[in-house]
Amino acid sequence: MTETPAFPNSPAPQRFPVVVVGAGPAGLTVGCVLRAAGVDCLVLETATREFVEGRPRAGVIEEPVVRGLERRGLAGNLLERARRHTACEFRFEGGRHPFAYHELTGRHHWVYPQQFLVTDLVREYADVRGGAVRFGVRDVRLHDLDGDRPSVSYVCPESGRREVAACAFVAGCDGARGVTRAAVAGRARVARHDYGIGWLALLAQAPPSADRVLFGCHPDGFAGQMPRSPEVTRYYLQCPPGDDPENWPHERVWAELRRRLDAAGAEPPAEGRLIEKRVLDMHDYVTEPMSFGRLHLAGDAAHLVAPIAAKGLNLALHDAFALGDALVARLVKGDGTGLAGYSEGCLRRVWDYQEFSQWLSELYHGGAAGDPFRAGTALARLRRLFSSPAAATAFAEQYLGTAVRY
């Protein structure tokens, strides 16, 4: 973070109460909340609008998050188009084990691909609520975040000139590799956990073999099926960390999916063209605190949770609700209580979700660890889900994001 610089070749600074860095789910939600309250803001994004709206990512959304979007007028298309999931299925020891979490809790998941949600949020923020947004900007820099007059500068893609946006607050929503997280390097405490495994993430142009999420807990490695639409399915295959996707040709992918998801009476996965294939090294991190002067981090800029428990998008939106509401209270009502408690409140949920991700990872991967003790305890966890109503209910509440309310 630098002293206020001079920008001799730049036009006069623009002024916004809030500059949001990053046009992902968190940043766009913060922007929509601000605009609904009549607060001007500027959203800056290094990618193009077309790229942001087309980037496939998560798709499982918890019911409390959907209700949060609904309360803020952001769930119209989601409620109309998303699919409700009321059960998942574990496959182990050659058997199928349906887990009906709706029967235990009355809650369900929604499946709505993240790119659809981002498209909805971009349209709502920019086209409906009239929010200012700049796509394709370069070399974003943050200035004077500890002072009373912070600003954000960037290179305009059309003119090539550096432009400056003066503001009262900066919302850092630009992900794990963004400039806002880099700005607090050396000041933040970063806790990191590496699982020592990889997941081959696949997107297949093929219908799902079942109308629910499947978890294959196999001695040779985990496999998962996450339906995205009647025509597209997300699959995961456990692999060594750092593996090369080219080591997984079409034939090997489908052979492993059939083997690891095999169970008595189950339909095998339907083959289709693989439209995405990449390796994700499973790791988590948490940045503490999430607030630094006039900068407040949200989503992956503050924390990363491996996709093991499908919590990343949900955590980002919880952050965005809290940050957007807190900024509105401060700027409209002069009430700074929400901003003062923002970091602590969000981190309680973050750590709760991280703990569940670790627990679930052992359940998924312990049987393939090559350690008979870990394999035995992982199998004990699986069996307990189907023999103890108390254990099943506790798992369902954590899986659905309803175990703890903040």
Automatic annotation (TrEMBL):
Keyword Flavoprotein: yes
Species this chain originates from: Streptomyces prasinosporus
Gene3D superfamilies reported for this sequence: D-Amino Acid Oxidase, subunit A, domain 2, FAD/NAD(P)-binding domain
Family annotation (Pfam families): FAD_binding_3
Record keywords: FAD, Flavoprotein
InterPro entries xrefs: FAD-bd (IPR002938), FAD/NAD-bd_sf (IPR036188), RIFMO-like (IPR050641)
Domain FAD-binding, residue spans: 16-356
Protein name: 4-hydroxybenzoate 3-monooxygenase
